[in-house]
Amino acid sequence: MGAGLRQNLGRDWGPQAWRQMTGTSPNNVFTDVATHSENVCTKDRKWKATSEVKDKRRRSKYANVDDTSAARKSYNRCDGGTSPEEVVDDLSHEDLDELKSSYFKANVCVSLKKKLMKWNDAREVKQMTKTG
To answer: On the chain, which terminus has fewer CB atoms closer than 10 Å, C or N?
Structure first.
């Protein structure tokens, strides 16, 4: 909820939301925190806009690459795995079934066993309290 209010009302969203919801003005502590947060954001934005910081950011982005044009190409390219031109063979039906069953045994069965153990423990405690 806070992110949407900040987007709609700006950095002064806290006191404005307080006024709208309660019908009273916020206390000094709340207002001071909102003002301090606004000042910090303003200083940070101004600092990041300086040429020194921009140059430092640019240099660190291309620091490990000798050719900057190659770095730009690799930076702009979405390197999320194989390229679209490469053809990857599909898994066979048997291999897929084997992967599914190994995943199920390793992940799903373990969590089901834990839930069952918790449920049984809770049931035993409930029975003990009923008889006592």
So the answer is: C
Q: How far is CA 53 from the centre of its chain?
A: 26
Helix axes 13-22, 28-48, angle to 10 degrees: 150
User: Is the model's pTM score more than 0.85?
Assistant: no
CA 95 – CA 120 distance, rounded (Å): 36
Alpha helices in 49-108 (DSSP H): 51-61, 68-76, 93-103
Q: What Å distances lie between residue 66 and 17, 77, 95, CA to CA?
A: 51, 18, 43
Q: Give residue for tokens 């002064």.
A: 12
Residue type, 39: N
Q: Is 30:18 a contact under the CB 8 Å cutoff?
A: yes
Cα–Cα distance measured from residue 110 to residue 80, given in angstroms and rounded to the nearest whole number: 31
Per-residue pLDDT of 61-109, as tens digits, reads 777 665 555 555 555 555 555 566 667 778 888 988 998 888 887 777 7
Predicted pLDDT of residue 128: 66
